[in-house]
């Protein structure tokens, strides 16, 4: 501020106003022109600014995109926008404020001559700014102020689109809540800030009701097609959903036949297995309709899972079919057509002859193949065999190794391959009894980490990751799993019995602690190096809040992961069993360098690997919960779906709940 001459020296916004930025970027996108993450951060920073003003009893009175100045469009920057132009802002007292200033279209309907209003008028304007962020357009309702005011007072609002089209459900719902005609129904800026700290706010795209379905199968790779099946025999039908567009492309198309047990889409072919021990191969023509199959194959047991394995030859690949009796059928495919020859890999024979497991051993039970995964750059396939994992050498098509992540009667239910912080390939697996996640280093076959997924409030849980051995161990043919030494992740025994259920015993030098199913980690978070672009974390990180809101005491209003539910000890015996079922993990999904673990209760645990100067560790960095699905109760394994896109441009995880 200068007196001689009288002037203000203000900071220059390098990118002009938000309205200008939206106008420049809206040409290439029908919705969310700035992308999910940047839109989320800008909306959060605007709400933080309003919360600060309202804390100081100041009503902005003229919030619009022209008065929001843009500093950066980089998602990683701490400050992206700042609020400006407080020329008509008013001091608010307990009685409220008077005045009719504001911009038509952004002005709340209760702003009229001689009418008292409060800070909720800013929240109405905030809803209109959210409309601009979602649509890229101004909230146009007419050209004359009186005409616009009448429309707003009657509840007429700008048209945006259905949630599955916009694909930012929480922000769209917040927009509609903010521009409610009744001020008392609009949220406070402080509560909006609290809502947006939940990582689910940005990642939950939409909810699409598909009616009753009995099975679904998603495509491998980066495709966005999900196929649902329902019924059997003459009433069998299928539904095709495009998760990228939020659109049902085919709805209940009739396709008579036996009940489908699993499915695989590879190139232009669709492999479907049915409960009458047959495989039908269809040539795809837009997924509609599935008429006469190109080929029908018989199998000695019901197919429980498929896996496509690419080979060096052009237009050639292998299709592996895991069977309910533990066999793995191998089908060579050339130009979409299976060869006449088919070979089988027998888990029982390999366990007895190569790994010296006696027939009476529980690991020799005829376990169905639940999961298969391509590992080590396509040179191996790891598949489940009861509590263990068997490794297939793709060159020789022989079973070459057995790993023991669990003990009977646990069964491996899910296997995925991903990379850790240093680029090394790791394999994660999950079981159905101990409810624990196990991580192997794929090259050395070393068990590196174990994490119990049945924690009621897992946010910020940590678990150690064992350093890699310098040399890979020799091929192990021992029948019994080894118990690692020391105070590492292996000093945990997981026992299961029909009477007591799952018990976790932590062994120490002179003490054994019992960990109930409701135990949780209370370790404080530690700072560690990790990729910020890969974490679907809260926008309210330590350095991302652009304004000092003086509202730190409000953070407990809606902290994600806060233990607000009853503990298991407060439940009745029947409730306790249901409670444990809610916490059962059902699948593992690899999303870039993160692991997503959906649970039966409907939440998703997001795990990342961190490394500091001391050691590497795993941490639960977020818990995603779609509260919109809570009324539907427990979601069985066949109904849990988390769809994701590999963050191609916007550095954003997309999560859709498909029911």
TrEMBL record:
<dbReference type="InterPro" id="IPR050167">
    <property type="entry name" value="Ser_Thr_protein_kinase"/>
</dbReference>
<feature type="region of interest" description="Disordered">
    <location>
        <begin position="517"/>
        <end position="574"/>
    </location>
</feature>
<protein>
    <submittedName>
        <fullName>LRRK1 protein</fullName>
    </submittedName>
</protein>
<dbReference type="GO" id="GO:0005524">
    <property type="term" value="F:ATP binding"/>
</dbReference>
<feature type="compositionally biased region" description="Low complexity">
    <location>
        <begin position="517"/>
        <end position="548"/>
    </location>
</feature>
<dbReference type="GO" id="GO:0004672">
    <property type="term" value="F:protein kinase activity"/>
</dbReference>
<dbReference type="InterPro" id="IPR011009">
    <property type="entry name" value="Kinase-like_dom_sf"/>
</dbReference>
<feature type="domain" description="Protein kinase">
    <location>
        <begin position="1"/>
        <end position="201"/>
    </location>
</feature>
<dbReference type="InterPro" id="IPR000719">
    <property type="entry name" value="Prot_kinase_dom"/>
</dbReference>
<dbReference type="InterPro" id="IPR036322">
    <property type="entry name" value="WD40_repeat_dom_sf"/>
</dbReference>
<dbReference type="Pfam" id="PF00069">
    <property type="entry name" value="Pkinase"/>
</dbReference>
<feature type="region of interest" description="Disordered">
    <location>
        <begin position="465"/>
        <end position="486"/>
    </location>
</feature>
């Amino acid at each position: 501020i200068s007196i001689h001459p009288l002037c203000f020296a203000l900071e220059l916004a390098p990118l002009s106003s938000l309205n200008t930025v939206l106008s420049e970027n809206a040409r290439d996108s029908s919705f969310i022109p700035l992308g999910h993450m940047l839109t989320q951060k800008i909306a959060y920073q605007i709400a933080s600014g309003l919360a600060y003003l309202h804390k100081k009893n100041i009503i902005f009175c003229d919030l619009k995109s022209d008065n929001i100045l843009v500093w950066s469009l980089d998602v990683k920057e701490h400050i992206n926008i700042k609020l400006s132009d407080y020329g008509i802002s008013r001091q608010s007292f307990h009685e409220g404020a008077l005045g009719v200033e504001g911009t038509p279209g952004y002005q709340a309907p209760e702003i009229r001559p001689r009418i008292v209003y409060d800070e909720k008028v800013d929240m109405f304007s905030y809803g209109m700014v959210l409309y601009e962020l979602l649509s890229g357009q101004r909230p146009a309702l007419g050209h004359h102020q009186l005409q616009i005011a009448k429309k707003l007072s009657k509840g007429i609002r700008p048209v945006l689109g259905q949630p599955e089209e916009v694909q930012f459900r929480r922000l769209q719902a917040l927009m509609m809540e903010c521009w409610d005609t009744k001020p008392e129904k609009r949220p406070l800026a402080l509560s909006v800030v609290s809502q947006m700290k939940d990582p689910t706010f940005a990642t939950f795209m939409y909810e699409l009701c598909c009616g009753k379905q009995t099975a679904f199968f998603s495509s491998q790779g980066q495709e966005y097609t999900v196929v649902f099946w329902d019924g059997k025999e003459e009433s069998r039908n299928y539904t095709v959903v495009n998760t990228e567009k939020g659109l049902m492309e085919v709805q209940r198309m009739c396709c008579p036949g036996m009940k489908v047990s699993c499915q695989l889409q590879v190139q232009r072919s669709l492999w479907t297995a049915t409960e009458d021990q047959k495989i039908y191969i269809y040539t795809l023509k837009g997924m509609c309709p599935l008429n006469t199959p190109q080929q029908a194959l018989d199998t000695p047991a019901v197919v429980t899972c498929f896996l496509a394995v690419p080979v060096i030859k052009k237009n050639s690949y292998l299709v592996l079919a895991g069977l309910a009796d533990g066999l793995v059928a191998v089908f060579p495919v050339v130009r979409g057509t299976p060869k006449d020859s088919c070979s089988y890999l027998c888990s029982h024979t390999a366990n007895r002859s190569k790994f010296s497991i006696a027939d009476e051993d529980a690991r020799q039970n005829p376990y169905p193949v639940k999961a298969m995964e391509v590992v080590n750059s396509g040179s191996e396939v790891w598949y489940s065999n009861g509590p263990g994992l068997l490794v297939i050498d793709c060159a020789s098509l022989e079973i070459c190794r057995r790993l023991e992540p669990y003990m009977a009667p646990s069964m491996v239910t899910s296997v995925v391959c991903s990379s850790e912080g240093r680029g090394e390939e790791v394999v994660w697996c999950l079981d159905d009894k101990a409810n624990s996640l196990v991580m192997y280093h794929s090259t050395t076959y070393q068990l590196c980490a174990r994490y119990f997924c049945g924690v009621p409030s897992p946010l910020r849980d940590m678990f150690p990751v064992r350093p890699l051995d310098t040399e890979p161990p020799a091929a192990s043919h021992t029948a019994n799993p080894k118990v690692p030494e020391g105070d590492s992740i292996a000093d945990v025994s997981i026992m299961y019995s029909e009477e007591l259920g799952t018990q976790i015993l932590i062994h120490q030098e002179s003490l054994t602690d019992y960990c109930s199913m409701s135990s949780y980690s209370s370790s404080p978070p530690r700072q560690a190096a990790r990729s910020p672009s890969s974490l679907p974390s809260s926008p309210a990180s330590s350095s991302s809040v652009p304004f000092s809101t003086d509202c730190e005491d409000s953070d407990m209003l809606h902290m994600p992961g806060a233990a607000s539910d009853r503990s298991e000890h407060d439940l009745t015996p029947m409730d306790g069993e249901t409670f444990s079922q809610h916490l059962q993990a059902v699948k593992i999904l690899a999303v870039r360098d993160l692991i997503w673990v959906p649970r039966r209760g409907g939440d998703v645990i997001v795990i990342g690997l961190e490394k500091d100067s001391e050691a590497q560790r795993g941490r639960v960095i977020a818990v995603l919960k779609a509260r919109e699905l809570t009324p539907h109760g427990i979601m069985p394994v066949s109904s849990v779906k988390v769809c994701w896109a590999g963050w191609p441009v916007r550095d954003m995880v997309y999560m859709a709940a498909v029911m």
